[in-house]
Specification:
The two termini are about 35 Å apart. The protein has a five-stranded mixed β-sheet, sandwiched between helices. It has a four-stranded parallel β-sheet with strand order 3-2-4-5, with helices on both faces. The chain is built from 16 helices and nine strands. It has a domain of about 110 residues: Rossmann fold, CATH 3.40.50. Strand 2, helix 2 and strand 3 form a beta-alpha-beta unit. About 10% of the residues have low confidence. Helix 6 runs parallel beside helix 12 and helix 7 packs antiparallel against helix 8. By secondary structure, the chain is an alpha/beta fold. About 50% of the residues lie in helices and about 10% in strands.
Length: about 450
């Protein structure tokens, strides 16, 4: 694991040639759960009668997404916790050129194959796909090849794509998509509550227990079969009232901790194994974290779809109208689920993605730079406007998004009161993380004492 710190007083210089080359090779973002627009579309995977395993990103999000799959009759589960065996198997079946998230996902799946010895004909792995040069687009193909080469070709690889209207799901595609979106919103609410309360808890471990209980409670609502969207929403709202009461009943201390915004590559920042529990290290040394959730990416892919419609002069066409209506329904569901938490999150308001894109425009305009580098840059600036005392960017080592944002952050910091920004890279090796976090938090505390923008 490596890192780089940026403040307004740094003299770091970005390589403009490297930055331009990186931007030119970026993939186009995907819509919702993934898209594969290549003409070589893979054969549809049949998961009938199989157990569908989901990788962790984060655990709570995958847990609730599995519940959404169960609502339409799938036997969906989350892969077991990652460990050293995950990295061992991930390394065994990769060459070293693959990115760290791919190594973790592959290791978790192969752990089920080799250690749990699942029956191949009754097993399926969920692995969405994407187009473009990003290595994420190769995850599913690599997994399929490895399974075939090692005698496990009967295992189905389920790669959802919006390009065919999620045809792999069948007639219940729209049913699943709406329930899955609600699962995303609920998981973001629960994770936000966890990170807002846990640093201040009087009884260590209580907030984690309430979080896991809340996952079980809301997951049971999401997994219920044979009910309509209206009834499910009513049950979710009732469940969230109970969730709120449980979190607010936790005894907390009154402390003035530095607020650290957390952005970065989506898998690495959300998968706690991938980032060596970085947020817990920050909390242990006196910080509180504000983490960008999963919903941000979904809204971004929708915004990208609208941008492409404009560029291709297809605005107000059939596809545009479908995306527009879907976005309206998503927004309505999100507002309903968030309604009871406005008072709790009054100082942690999540921005609409258009605001993030607006913040990033001077550095990485949406039309010329795509993906998490734009969201991380704009997100860092938004967190600055909300009174954050420092920004942490979590990225896999060699990740294109992290490399580009690291080149941008010195200017971003200089333009925004010298707020400290540090990129933490992770690749499965270990360093003295407590030392690195301690150094960064000292910078954040110093900035907190002199900064111009304070929290509400």
């Amino acid at each position: 694991m490596g890192m780089r710190t940026t403040t307004g007083h740094d003299n770091g210089k970005a390589s403009h040639e490297a930055l331009a080359a990186a931007l030119a090779s970026l993939p186009k973002p995907i819509v919702a759960l993934g898209a594969d627009h290549s003409p070589q579309a893979k054969q549809k995977a049949d998961v009938t009668g199989r157990t569908l395993w989901l990788p962790r990103m984060p655990y709570g999000g995958s847990y609730l997404l599995a519940a959404a799959f169960r609502s339409i009759g799938y036997d969906a589960r989350v892969t077991p916790p990652e460990d050293l065996r995950t990295l061992e198997l991930g390394g065994k079946y990769t060459s070293g050129d693959e990115c760290y998230p791919q190594r973790i996902v592959l290791g978790d799946f192969m752990k089920l194959v080799e250690d749990e010895r699942l029956v191949p004909a009754k097993t399926a792995f969920l692995l969405p796909t994407a187009n473009g040069p990003c290595r994420f687009g190769q995850y599913a193909s690599l997994l399929e090849r490895i399974l075939v080469d090692h005698g496990h070709g009967d295992i189905a690889v389920f790669s959802l794509t919006s390009a065919d209207g999620y045809a792999d799901i069948g007639d219940q595609a729209q049913e699943l998509i709406r329930t899955a979106w609600r699962a995303v919103v609920v998981q973001d609410i629960l994770l936000k509550l966890l990170l807002k309360i846990r640093p201040y808890e009087v009884e260590p471990g209580q907030t984690d227990r309430v979080y896991l209980e809340s996952l079980d409670f809301t997951g049971s609502v999401l997994a219920r079969q044979g009910i309509g969207h209206k009834e499910r929403m009513a049950d979710l709202l009732a469940a969230l009232v109970r969730v709120k009461e449980s979190f607010l009943a936790i005894a907390v201390r009154q402390e003035d901790r530095p607020l650290i915004g957390v952005v970065g590559e989506i898998f690495c920042r959300l998968n706690t194994f991938a980032n060596n529990e970085l947020i817990r290290h920050i909390e242990a040394q006196g910080g509180e974290c504000w983490l960008s959730g999963v919903g941000e990416w979904v809204w971004y892919t929708n915004e990208e779809a609208f941008r492409r419609y404009r560029e291709e002069k297809r605005r107000f066409g059939k596809d545009w109208l479908k995306t527009f209506i879907t976005a309206r329904i998503m927004h309505r569901d999100e507002e309903a689920l968030m309604e009871d938490f406005h008072d709790v999150f009054v100082s942690r308001r999540e921005p609409h993605v258009t605001k993030i894109l607006q913040h990033a425009r001077s550095y990485l305009p949406q039309e010329g730079a795509l993906g998490e580098m734009v969201l991380s840059t704009g997100g860092a600036i938004y967190l600055y406007t909300q009174g954050a005392d420092g920004i942490v960017d979590i990225s896999p080592f060699t990740c294109m998004n992290g490399i580009v944002t690291e080149a941008i952050y010195p200017v971003v910091s200089k333009d925004h009161d010298g707020i400290p920004i540090r990129v933490f890279y992770f690749d499965g090796t270990h360093s003295d993380l407590d030392r690195d976090v301690g150094i960064f938090l000292e910078l954040a505390k110093t900035y907190k004492r002199r900064k111009k923008i304070h929290r509400a």
